Amino acid sequence: MVLIVAFAVFIAAMVACIATGQSIIFGLVVGFVTFIAAGHIKGFIVKDMLLMAWGSVKDSIIVVEIWLMIGLLTGIWRASGTISFFVYYGVLLVRPPLFIILAFVMCCVLSYILGTSFAVSGTLGVMLMALASSAGVDPLLTGGAIMSGIYFGDRCSPASSSAILVANITGTDLMTNVKRMFATGTLPVGITLIIYAVLSVRNPMNQVDDTIMSALSTEFELTPMTLIPVAFIVILPILRFDIRWAFIGGILSSGVIAVLCQHMSIMESVSCALGGFSPESTVLKEILSGGGLIEMFESCVIVTIACSYSGIFEGTNLLNDIQEIIEKMMNKTGKFIATLILSLMTCAIFCSQTIAAMLCNDLMKKPYEKTGSDNYELAMDIENSTIMVCALFPWCISASVPLTMLGVDARAILYGFLLYIVPICYIFTRRHWYKDKPTQED
């Protein structure tokens, strides 16, 4: 009963934050205090619970470091012309009968390189939407293809904050997870490509407005040198370097390119990395403005507070009753479907991919261990459920922010085929990757 009341207060606080437009940090702080109080009622000392929380927070430091680096990267890549290079030459490849499928593929590639869905939707995504509007292509269909593409990279890029988060909370190796995500994602991506190929032929482009293209070529020197930072992000993780070195290389090389190619001063490039980039061209301000270290502070605070919950839950065994219910459900549905159901519930309630992933890990960890499953299996199940389905709820941050950037309504989610094809395919193919082991009750 104590835990039910604590969760009710937590959910109410989160809903109130969302309804009033306040930062969910306030709801998370209320939840933190509430769960501390619940543990105290169950007989635990407050000081001990704070130490439990701190233990989990220390484990999350690498995630915070990566997110801060992503902020630096997204700011300086805008300034150096790296993102603009991909947008400009990617759009040049677009052919009228292939617009939708190429929009999906380009968003896949850029989201894999950047590892962030929001940066891609706010740059290449906005550009593609402008092309679609000027060329008479269905904006909902275009928006859906973009949503599919940006969450391809958000799910399986070694630079993705969500992939790094899942690896960290489950105690698994990031690059091993990335390889498995590519393996389990091959069929869904193949099906999605076929669907978008058919829809592309049925929705060809008409006349295109090249105003943005002209602005890009005027604002930036789009030389192949702007691709050097990409090499650090793509190649170093493959060579088994720590992902932090990949980010450092990408950031520093972008700063050099911003000075040499875009004729910025050193202080201007540093300012873009810290506070974000704002282009001189009025046409490009809506597309390329943003990024920077400061932009990531709120996300870092959110993940830090959310991580503290894990220590409290584990140290006080507050989740035992819920985990027993989950175990019974797993016996009937199987592990992944139980995880998928829990993912849908946590995403719908907490509206945050980060919080949903952490709660799913906290709730599912012991039930998975009891069935003999390892942490890699749990990590893959979270990646193929929570990380993808969060964008299916229009009120969730994962959907609302990209949709607002793209200027389309929630109906575009229906055309984001990859978002739900991934979990559906995994339901039927999971047995090929992991064989469910019998539980004690079986």
Describe this structure in words.
The structure is a single chain. The protein has 442 residues and is an all-alpha fold. 76% of the residues lie in helices and 0% in strands. It has 23 helices and no strands. The chain has helices at 2-20, 24-41, 46-59, 61-80, 82-92, 99-114, 117-135, 139-156, 161-170, 174-202, 211-219, 228-238, 243-260, 266-275, 282-288, 297-316, 320-333, 335-350, 353-370, 375-383, 386-389, 397-406, 417-433. α8 (139-156) runs antiparallel to α10 (174-202) and α16 packs parallel to α19. The longest helix is centred in the middle third of the chain and has 29 residues, at 174-202. The protein is globular. Mean pLDDT is 85; it is low at 436-442.
Please give a handful of descriptors for the protein shown.
442 residues, single chain, globular, mainly alpha
Blueprint (SSEs and pairs):
Layout: H1 2-20, H2 24-41, H3 46-59, H4 61-80, H5 82-92, H6 99-114, H7 117-135, H8 139-156, H9 161-170, H10 174-202, H11 211-219, H12 228-238, H13 243-260, H14 266-275, H15 282-288, H16 297-316, H17 320-333, H18 335-350, H19 353-370, H20 375-383, H21 386-389, H22 397-406, H23 417-433
Helix pairs in contact: 1-2, 2-16, 3-16, 4-9, 4-13, 4-14, 4-16, 5-7, 6-7, 6-8, 6-10, 7-8, 7-22, 8-10, 9-19, 9-20, 10-23, 12-13, 13-14, 16-19, 17-18, 17-19, 18-19, 19-20
